[in-house]
Design brief:
By secondary structure, the protein is mainly alpha-helical. It is built from 35 helices and four strands. Residues 581-616 are annotated as: Disordered.
């Protein structure tokens, strides 16, 4: 049986008796819905069925919703009853798995419109929310057969779907916690008294609700690396969207730059390196139960800090817990921050002056010696013995390893981190192993200079004397062209003595501050939090000074000096040429091996020459 609509289009009118009988309307007579049909065949065509005759409440709710309002305005292709429930002759209860509105089928039913790009774009909307839902933790759970995971109607409602901007909508900003709480009841109970929950209840639009952190349709498990609440994402994006800028600070006095100051700390830097276990925002502040720090319930309240830190740092004391996690110096006025600020200021000037002076000095020497360079004969004079070369080699390797691994932590997005495979474990373990090696070499050197005759002589020859000041002045005048002869250096030049003493001091200072950072919990039992902050600043800026000094000063002496370019191989076999020994260390060649160090006779001769008296 077919019917003609008068426009040349026909529609099949055959109703399968069994399908109709099994439907929810199977017990009704045809005329119950088609009240205007009295005869068969009938003419004209029956009027559209009025579902509201029986379903008045649902119809009233539908009219209040966005679909009903659009239909009332005459918008074409707005979904009506049959678009969601199916043909009236085959509708089955929502509990039936075959129903279009059963829980398992609701996403596909809504997706028939909301998941089709050209349909949504034709209305000036996007299909992305539905596509995101399909990939979310809820969508995947429903697809896997879950009967409890959230579907469209759980959040948006069924017939009375309202815009998110409507205060009566379940997805209105202030209603979202209650909506999510229908499934996540315990979480909602924890969130309600929190600083965010109370602010939202007061009508504060700026306060974070469920969807501000978890997302809307694209919610993923916190274990998913792509989740907005994954460990690495919290400080970088999720918490930072509110707590990094100045908006909350200007409006409500909430401290800003909390994310960037965290990212500059050890925790943040390790997080950048890919650590999945390092403390993040939620580790300290809580997840849904976040309170003001002054609230006794807060995990970052002073009384609770030791327990909070103790979750990761066993044996944490109250003093250890008071060391800063947010390390931004401009943000705080405590003693540690002020001390670190002054350390930074002093070191920046120190670095500029020291390294600047080194650059000027070496630049002057380089341009002069480049012009005077000549080929050197075979190297025969011993400069370093085997034990000294071993110590130098271990210092060389450990220093480079410390520099690479240390700066890879501070700058995890740099090529240095890439060299380590962006691995926090490689950086951390490598840095500590190199530190142990350097400290071990330092201890060995102390034994060497204390109990070995050659070690004692080495140390004595490295001690500065007044002659070094004369040599410095003479050397600068020579390279400025104001003197025709080089200064007559002894075994070590003033530059080598500065390097040696700087190495001793720098190793001791870096070892002390490094041990504080390595064993922070134990150090906090003896040191104040301010001292730990200052030690951290010293460790960083001393590292910069040391690396720059090696690159600018030492590399010039052993690599870029035209007299030894491309490298002084004394570090390898301990020897230099006889010509170089006589030219650069003439006084050492004149002093007998058993003579006391820093022989005064050559020094007096040099002072006489400087005064214009002839030398020997």
């Amino acid at each position: 049986m077919i019917a003609d609509n008068g426009a040349g289009k026909t529609k099949g009118l055959q109703v399968d008796p069994k399908t109709f009988h099994d439907s929810i309307h199977g017990a009704l007579e045809c005329a119950a819905c088609h009240a205007d049909v009295n005869d068969v065949p009938h003419d004209p065509a029956p009027k559209p069925v009025a579902c509201e005759t029986c379903h008045a409440d649902q119809h009233s709710a539908y009219q209040k919703g966005i679909h009903g309002a659009a239909k009332a305005k005459g918008v074409a292709a707005v979904p009506g009853c049959t678009a969601c429930h199916g043909d009236a002759h085959s509708i089955v209860p929502a509990a039936d798995p075959k129903s279009k509105v059963s829980r398992a089928n609701i996403p596909q039913t809504c997706g028939a419109c909301h998941g089709v790009k050209f349909v949504m774009e034709g209305r000036g909307l996007s299909a992305q929310p539905f596509l995101s839902y399909e990939q979310s933790v809820h969508g995947k759970a429903v697809a896997a057969g879950s009967a409890t995971a959230a579907v469209c109607t759980d959040c948006h409602g069924a017939h009375d779907i309202l815009r998110a901007s409507d205060p009566k909508s379940p997805i209105f900003k202030f209603n979202v916690p209650q909506t999510c709480g229908r499934c996540h009841e315990k979480i909602a109970q924890a969130y309600a008294p929190s600083v965010h929950g109370e602010a939202l209840a007061r009508g504060n639009w700026q306060s974070a609700g469920c969807t501000d952190c978890h997302g809307i349709h694209s919610i993923k498990s916190h274990l998913d690396p792509e989740s907005s609440v994954a460990s690495a994402a919290l400080a970088r994006t999720t918490c930072a969207q509110c707590h990094e800028g100045v908006r909350l600070s200007q409006e409500f006095g909430v401290a800003s730059q909390r994310a960037s100051s965290y990212m500059d700390s050890y925790h943040g830097l390790a997080s950048k390196m890919g650590s999945a276990v390092v403390a993040n925002c939620a580790s300290c502040h809580g997840v849904h139960n976040i309170y003001r720090s002054a609230d006794p319930r807060s995990t970052v309240n002073h009384a609770n800090l030791a327990a909070t830190c103790g979750q990761c740092h066993g044996g944490s004391s109250q003093r250890f817990a008071l060391t800063k996690v947010h390390v931004g110096v401009p943000l705080s006025k405590d003693v540690g921050s002020l001390g670190a600020w002054w350390v930074r200021r002093v070191y920046l000037w120190l670095i500029a002056l020291v390294i600047g002076g080194m650059l000027l000095h070496n630049g002057l020497l380089w341009q002069r010696q480049l012009r005077l360079r000549r080929r050197s004969p075979e190297r025969t004079v011993e400069r370093m013995n085997a034990r000294q070369r071993l110590q130098h080699g271990l210092v060389l390797v450990s220093f480079i390893a410390l520099a690479v691994t240390g700066f890879a932590l501070k700058y995890p997005d740099s090529p240095l981190a890439w060299l380590l495979g962006s691995s926090d474990a490689v950086r951390r373990i490598g840095h500590r192993v190199a530190a142990v090696v350097l400290m071990g070499v330092g201890l060995y050197h102390l034994v060497y200079v204390a109990f070995s005759p050659e070690g004692r002589r080495l140390f004595r020859d490295f001690l500065p004397t007044l002659q070094d000041a004369t040599d410095l002045k003479w050397n600068l005048l020579y390279h400025l062209g104001r003197r025709t002869e080089r200064p007559r250096f002894g075994r070590f030049t003033y530059g080598e003595k500065v390097e040696y003493l700087s190495l001793l001091w720098g190793t001791l200072l870096m070892a002390m501050t490094g041990m504080v950072l390595w064993f922070k919990v134990g150090a906090a039992a003896w040191w104040t939090g301010a001292a730990v902050d200052i030690a951290t600043a010293i460790h960083f800026y001393e590292a910069i000074l040391a690396v720059l000094a090696i690159v600018v000063w030492h590399f010039y002496q052993v690599m870029f000096d035209p007299d030894v370019y491309p490298v002084d191989w004394a570090f390898w076999d301990g020897k230099i040429t006889e010509e170089r020994a006589k030219e650069h260390h003439p006084r050492a060649q004149e002093v007998p091996a058993d003579a006391p160090p820093n022989d005064e006779a050559p020094q007096k001769e040099d002072r006489d020459r400087e005064k214009g008296k002839p030398g020997k």
